[in-house]
Amino acid sequence: MNDFQEIADRVEIEALRGEFTDAAMMRDRARLSTLFTPDGVLRMPNVPVELIGREEIRTGGERLQSQWDFFVQNSHPGTIRIDGDTATGRTYMQEIARLLDGRSGLNFAIYHDTYRRTPEGWKFTERVYEVRYVDTTPLAGSVPGPGTQAHGSGKAGDAGQAPGAGEADASATGTADDFSAPASAERLDRAIAALRANGFTAELLDDAAAARARIKDLIPQGAGVFTGASETLRLSGIEQDIEAGDRYQAIRPRVLKMDRATESDQIRRLVATPDVFVASVAAVTETGSLVIASGSGSQLPASAGGAARAIWVVGAQKVMPDLSTALRRVEEHALALETARAMAVYGQPSAVNRLLVLNAEPQPGRGTVLLLREAIGF
User: Fold this and answer.
1) Distance separating the N- and C-terminal Cα atoms of the chain
2) What whole-number distance in Å separates Cα of residue 342 and Cα of residue 48?
3) Considering the chain, what is the average pLDDT of its residues?
4) In b/e form, how buried is each residue of 61-79, taking b as 16+ CB within 10 angstroms?
5) Under a CB-based contact definition with an 8 Å cutoff, are residues 33 and 58 in contact?
6) Are the beta carbons of 129 and 43 closer than 8 angstroms?
7) Which end of the chain is more exposed for a tag (fewer CB within 10 A), N or C?
8) Cβ-based burial of 340 (10 A; exposed 0-12, middle 13-18, buried ≥19)
9) What is the DSSP string of 35-99?
10) What is the pLDDT of residue 243?
């Protein structure tokens, strides 16, 4: 290979890497997928995610970007080593992002690349994303709106909101499909009254901090407690209180250390019949029903009756007028947010494979709903 050809190849490969960043920033996943060979692979072991072939790279990326509030990616030139019609290289990345559920972060990473010369030019055959640094401190900035100055100083209080903050403002629109706006005081009262009439113990609390304190009163010391996967529990600190201390026998940390191949039966029994099950729900209706959606179904037996006691912590935005609206909230709102979380944690999207509706609690004192006046969780 002559020097001019190598220079041309390097320029084309650098342009390919720049095109990747541009397609990501412009949310053009169809274009991004064509930058790979038909059998190309995009791997993100730290997530973990593995997308094989152009179609998976396109659809997997579209699922992720549908959850962005904003995403900014900067790529910096690294190495390129050419060997005939193949090449290897590294690209250095800096990214900031915030999801629609309020989670945000900054990271520095490296793409370890393999390239191939094709009739259409140089393409990626593999990109492996290695995170070197991540910071999940909530970002103080925001997407500029109409009239917002470019430096993003904005009004006091606009920056640095915790997940769920500001959701009350959405209620001003009054739209029927606003599934993130807290219910009014009248609707909360109706839900509480209906839940009690249906046999649930129902309490109306001001906020997540009050629920966090109340949980300690409700669960006896030494009880075996299983915490369902829940953004409400995570954001409120309830999950940490139960799983990090020695006040309770926390089941989830124990299960996560067990071998699913050899101890699956024991895992199933532990999560299905705890002393106390603590979780949230996808929706609660003003007619007194709880709606719980699940991809695997592993948490449903405890809610349905397997746990000796069940406690559900529910944000005010989850109160729906009736069951049909509650089911729409699951499909049109909660599923998208849970898919973003599942992609980040498990590398695969979520799905509503199991759906449980609790219309009443036949065992007095078994089921407690802590309904909050503030919005929190999905």
Assistant:
1) 57
2) 10
3) 86
4) bebbbebeeebeeebeebe
5) yes
6) yes
7) N
8) buried
9) TEEEEEEEEETTTTEEEEHHHHHHHHHHHHHTTEEEEEEEEE---EEEETTEEEEEEEEEEEEEE
10) 92
- Quick one: tokens of 31? 């274009």
Contacts of 126 (CB under 8 A, 6+ apart): 40, 41, 42, 43, 113, 114
Please give the pLDDT value at position 18: 93
The tens digit of pLDDT for each residue in 215-235 reads 999 999 999 999 998 889 999
346: helix, coil or strand? helix
3-state secondary structure of 200: coil
pLDDT at residue 4 in the model: 81
pTM value? 0.56
DSSP-based helix, strand, coil % in the chain, nearest 5: 35, 30, 35
CB neighbour class for 156 (10 Å; exposed up to 12, middle 13-18, buried from 19): exposed
Q: What share of the chain has pLDDT > 70, as a percent? A: 89
In angstroms, the CA 142 to CA 150 distance is 10
Length of the chain: 378
Q: Where are the alpha helices (DSSP H) in 173-260?
A: 185-197, 208-218, 231-236, 238-244, 251-256
pLDDT band for position 204 (50/70/90)?
Answer: very high
Give the count of beta carbons closer than 10 Å to the beta carbon of residue 96: 16
Say what the alpha-carbon torsion angle 38, 41, 339, 253 is, to the nearest 10 degrees.
Answer: 160
